[in-house]
Design a protein that fits this description.
Rossmann fold; Dihydrodipicolinate Reductase, domain 2; alpha/beta; Myo_inos_IolG (chains A, B, C, D); seven-stranded mixed β-sheet; 353 residues; homotetramer
Chain lengths: 353, 353, 353, 353
């Protein structure tokens, strides 16, 4: 792939020209990150609600705002697209962008249908465009430090992983109804993190879950889940997810290994401790993913732009996007059947997809 | 039950007179605790290796040392016995002591056979003696503070529990061969802690496990296990056990609830942090259960002596001793059959016992 | 003051147009912050080394680069200047900018001569321009949280302050020779912080100091100092400064009050802890002021731009710039004369200035 | 010195026989510690309030209780005395005990009159008895770890010390009136700790202080003090004392050195953290010296008994008792004269003693 350059200037003048598809909250996060990145330029933004696209264009000084995402992929000035539109449009846009030769950064998920995921990944592969999935946690300093400790041998061979991933409060029911459920909507991030830090594929999952909220129960979803994992390298792990932690967004992780262990704590808005007559207190952690992963969102975009500009592999591949969905299917099946499910049952089975 | 008193002195002079059965390491821990307890007096110590009984007697100023535990329960000056002999003798001694009208403090386990446990508990019940099991962790300030937070409503309704319980290093193979395996030898303490802090019975368990040690694998045991739990009150939980954490004895626990969460950290020999040119360092946690639970061992003995002296219920009952064994059977079955096992399958089933 | 606006657009289109004087490290930090601030526009940059000005202009897309700072204050398109030139030029540029009606953001110090400081402040006052001094720590989330705790009554009446302020390593001797010495170069930041968090003026100082470096001793400077403070409100305090902390930049602060206390810790690149067979380790804190106060530098510039745009008072005044210099003189005198020095001796005395 | 032994048994049967002088709170702390020490036996207890002596004797099984401390030093069965009587009796009892050939453990202070201290120390030296002063903090695991770090070279050459020493609340005025004032009553412990961890003598002190309590001000005392120190080895330090910290007993210390730093935190009753919807909370530290230094009190008594039993030097000498009093005089003089005071002015001067 050759990326477009403004002129025949030397490579230091290379700027990756991007189109944003979806001008909502996450689209704007990426616009901000790209506005700070001297190697990138956002040349067009699309949103089905064209007013949103126009507002975004004005806010970030983007020259063009359109309604139809196809106008983005048709635009010859566009090197790549940032897909931030609703999940059920990802598959179609990926196919279109890939066929148009545009590099692709896509928010998770690719899709929740494994056949459509495979189709999207195959199309990307044939077209030769870069593809990066939006697992921004991989760019977080804490998770990266854990990966470095594990991969660098600081804790020896990993034995056991524990991930805790709690949201401050459940999203609205309307959102939950179309979210795919906790395993797909929430735990796919944690499945990715498990693979990322342990550096080995998950072969078996076993799920236990409960719901503390009657409305969420009524729509067939759960609020609180524990999924045990077995990895190809012999390690085991467990992911704990919960839709509600009143003290804020709780994102922690520990790995125990043959020569030691590593854990990470949450990030806080300040380091102050207040000592009172009854208790010692500190402020709550950064409250949600937009604050907690602010730098990670910026860094994942830098990474994508660099991969395009330098023609190097992206940091989060299409397969990295597919496997967590497979694992979410396996966890669902495990919960339904009260048994350990081998991931291969999903990959090659037929019942669920 | 009326306890023996030295004379017809007022109750403040009441001293509980005890016999120690088993003069090994844990027997001596209890002798030390009792030597510091003005309400208790150890009047006799028994050990099959009579030299050990004699050495213990001399060290702690105990007037009588014998070989046969039956000499302890026959002794009319003895109000109660502290059973610290090998696990496979517990059943017989409990039966003997109960029939002799002696109060019983028994190190875990009662037995690993559920029929024999039931027989022991029935005999205790018929005799009316006090019975306390040696789950010393219940007396630890950290675990008690968690229980207080959960039971006192500080975190609302509990949603999810996580227990981490890692030993510094595996015990010798010879020990492991007769230990009953990780679920029985190690995780019964954690099953008890799960019930203690959540305050609800466990109804289902699901186990995932691995082994990092070929010799341990060869004897059919595991080194690293994850057991997911469902509680009667709707909460879920997960226990992580490992035979090896090179940085020391790691005993932590967290509970997430509807109004908050509580966690505990390990105990350390000092609070010093050393800041160097490459890292910030602190010393390792207290290394093993004798150090970590030193105060808890003393306090469980105070609790037992008080229960006897004041004719009040003991803090850890016979049923508290039985249920973790049932759970260990359920975890074993879950691991064998790769499925969630309802605890009722063990309690009323026939296959395992 | 009326600030220039691009056109007769509504106030939301107001953009503060700024000139940078001094294109070195800190000048570029401000350029970056301003490039991210939609309310500001850098229209010119000056540096005696004109190549540096040109490089800066290219890097941040600034339309004009010049050698002479006078070209900045003469420029009618400029609303305000950001003074980042060497300390000994600050006085002259402040006078020039104020007389030209340009708002002023000035890096510390205004000057180290009290008469010249007074002259600069008087000229600023007469001209009516905004003036903000570059005490960026006031914008740091940790220090702000302490101030909030103290001023908001969370700890009652403050009794005692402790500030620790250690650099990773001494600067080069060449720098130290013209730095004014530790009290002026380093501790003025801490004097400001003491006033900021306690919210009361310092009336007496007493200094104790030592030097661990022969070369620094040889030029008449110190490496390690303790300065005790008395505040007008009756509180006492102590500042500890050191030129060398091998583990990195150490910036901590504690206030003890009648109803509690508050302290802050350093900021770290990640929250990971690694547990090894010998020690428990974490990475070193953010190493120096550019990393530690990255966000504070951005926020102080937002604050200045807002003060200009909205015609509101600046967050750090000229007097806030003068008083720490007075305190540095008092500390110097205290050290020379081995006695407590009342700050009034400096403000109204004649010997030192 | 030869210590008495019960019989001509081998040395392992040697028991140090002690008399307690003063049966108040601290006397009972020592009785408890000695009751747990198999190498020691308390054979007599004296208290001017003979009922207190009798109650103590009954509680700890001490065979003899008397009113007059002279009956203790006359008793041929007594190898040494533990002086826990009011401070103004220490001098006389030390002289009497030393002349009677009894080893001496003495609570602080020896006296607050330097001539009487010198007389006491000279008498002890002539008699050849062991003498240990009750600076129990030297036996605390945290302070010992700091000393080990400094003396063992973990932080290189020490540059700067900071001690924070805050009581939960001021003692009653009646106590304060006869206490000698904050420098003598409270800070002598910290002066000792400064010497203990830095391992060098203090040569200069400079004091700053205030009072937040009118009644304490009215009796000429202070509540809050900062004393800067210079050490013989070139290091500097600062001690902060306050009579009131509503969150409890606060005892912390930091040393910065050429190769690193070391600090210690307080001790807490448990390690639990509770995460709520508004704050993250933990319980207050151990509240006062009896809880905080429980183990240190036991260990200092073990150390004294061992020194007597093995005829080895004591861990805290008479000179260790004198120097903090000299430093308290120097701090008082510094506060009165608003200047740095060289310690030699007190040691060899005439005005203060």
């Amino acid at each position: 792939m050759v990326i477009a350059t403004d002129t025949e200037m030397p490579t230091t003048r290379q700027v990756v020209r991007l189109g944003i598809i979806g001008a909502g909250r996450i689209g704007q996060v990426h616009c901000l990150a790209l506005s700070r990145n001297p190697k990138a330029e956002v040349v067009i933004v699309a949103d089905f609600f064209v007013k949103a696209a126009e507002a975004c264009a004005q806010k970030f000084g983007i020259p063009s705002a359109v309604q139809d995402w196809k106008d983005v992929i048709r635009n010859p000035a566009v090197d790549g697209v940032i897909i931030c539109s609703p999940s059920d449009t990802h598959h179609e846009i990926i196919l279109g962008a890939a066929k148009a030769g545009k590099h692709i950064f896509c928010e998770k998920p690719i899709d929740y249908n494994l056949k459509r995921i495979d189709e999207a990944l195959a199309t990307v592969a044939q077209s030769g465009v870069k593809f990066q999935l939006g697992f921004q946690r991989r760019f977080d300093a804490n998770f990266q430090r854990v990966r470095q400790a594990v991969q660098g041998g600081e804790i020896g061979e990993p034995f056991m992983l524990n991930i805790k991933s709690f949201d401050p409060a459940p999203p609205p029911l309307a959102y939950l109804k179309q979210s795919g459920g906790l395993f797909f909507d929430m735990m796919t991030h944690d499945f990715d993190m498990a693979r990322f830090v342990v550096g080995s594929e998950i072969t078996e999952v076993t799920a236990t879950a409960t719901s503390f909220d009657k409305e969420i129960t009524a729509i067939g979803d759960i609020t609180t889940a524990i999924v045990s994992l077995k990895f190809e390298n012999g390690a085991v792990g467990v992911i704990q997810c919960c839709r509600k932690a009143v003290y804020g967004y709780d994102q922690r992780l520990e790995v125990l290994g043959s020569e030691g262990a590593v854990d990470i704590n949450n990030n806080y808005p300040n380091t102050a401790t207040v000592y009172g007559a009854d208790k010692i207190k500190r402020d709550l952690p950064l409250n949600f993913f937009m604050d907690r992963y602010k730098q990670a969102y910026e860094d994942e975009m830098i990474s994508f732009v660099d991969a395009v500009a330098n023609d190097t592999p992206t940091a989060v591949t299409g397969m990295d996007g597919k496997i967590p969905v497979v694992l979410a299917f396996a966890a669902t099946k495990s919960l339904q059947e009260n048994r350990t499910v081998k991931v291969n049952e999903i990959l090659y089975g037929k019942s669920v997809m």
